[in-house]
Amino acid sequence: MEPQESQDAPDGLEEQRAFICASFNQDTTSLSVGTKTGYRLFSVTAVDKLDCIHEGVECPDVYIVERLFSSSLVVVVSLSMPRRMNVYHFKKGTEICNYSYSNDILSVRLNRQRLVVCLEESVYIHNIKDMKLLKTLLNTPTNLTGLCALSVNHSNSYLAYPGSATIGEITVYDANNLSTLTLIQAHDSPLAALAFNSSGSKLASASEKGTVIRVFSVPEGQRLFEFRRGMKRYVSISSLSFSADAQFLCASSNTETVHIFKLEQHSPSQDEESPTWSTYMGKMFSAASTYLPSQVSDMMHQDRAFATVRLNMFGLKNICALATIQKLPRLLVASSDGCLYIYNVDPQDGGECVLVQKHRLFESGEEQVEEKEEEDPEDGSPPPTSQSYAATVALPSTPPSSTTLMGYSEEGGAQTGDVIPEHEFAESPVCLDDENEFPPVGNQSN
């Protein structure tokens, strides 16, 4: 969405399509983008093309949009009604249900078992099959950004959220059995980012300082890895994401660099088999660290980035993800400049990642511009800024409303005027037409 493109478009068209938010689905096969006019869903299963599989215009100014894997279920929240969550069956063009809360919705997370809604001081856990409210966690520590993470593995459905507003404590909650698992003292500063790996066995975290990223075992809470993103400046980490095999972890921020870390344990036997100068020096530093202050000692044990990406932007909101596309490891970066960048990742040697494709998110399929790395860069005009969750909280709130859920039919459409009171939700499961992608789960205990 570059400024020069708007010259050929009707007045105001580019502004109407301005990027507000973006999210990858649970297996990184789809990208969801919230815009001024609604939302868009893209397939990201190929490098050379970006297919827009759906464009929703049910509500404008979408600042939260989350798709459930590759199913037809999508959750949308609009700036015009920030206290209401809408659940759509986008392939049928129908609303499954909507739900209103006592305050602005800051984030939504979902897997095949649970749907979690995070407000500033409370968390709501729903059964995704019938949208029944199972648990409300009240008086949680102030969470201005709605920071939380939900394991995509629905067999455990671990939920992580800040356990403190002043230090980096993580509460890990079992959303299936509705009980707290553990508290992790992760950082000295408040949390800024959280992410589970696909199995829910590892949890990555970063603080508001953004200099150190840590990985913990779940549910034990034991520290497994510690990575140093940088030392010279504090940054705002905007996203953390594991690769599908949990061998790599990527982190993006408000700087021009995306870091990829490799999760590998260095065993003593490996060092003895291949003695090198770096191995020798590493042992010397390790021995010396026992005599140094704890802060210096910690820095000497922290691993650095295995691979990096240098973006042609600074200060823009972006999210990153690692995916295997066409049998090769890729790094995906969706930016508030309105573009999706795809990079090749060398899983053996790391280093600087190579840009192989750039897709614009606001062009039609016929007019889509795709650029290789060797092409000339775009001009330096500043792109539109994105709407942050924190800014959303500052918007005027809608009048308080009672918590209700619109009824829905087996066809997936809302039953007009049929309002079901809280705790008396429809007994029938949410019915989607692509059952192979979202198989029904019957009579499972939570």
TrEMBL record:
Annotated membrane topology: Peripheral membrane protein
Keyword Membrane: yes
Chain residue ranges for the region called Disordered: 364-446
Source domain of life: Eukaryota
Single GO biological process annotation from the record: response to stress
Gene Ontology cellular component annotations, sorted alphabetically: phagophore assembly site membrane
Keyword Repeat: yes
Record's keyword terms, sorted: Autophagy, Lipid-binding, Membrane, Repeat, WD repeat
Compartments reported by the entry: Preautophagosomal structure membrane
Bias type Acidic residues, positions: 364-379
Family: Belongs to the WD repeat PROPPIN family.
Protein name as annotated: WD repeat domain phosphoinositide-interacting protein 1-like isoform X2
Organism, scientific name: Gymnodraco acuticeps (Antarctic dragonfish)
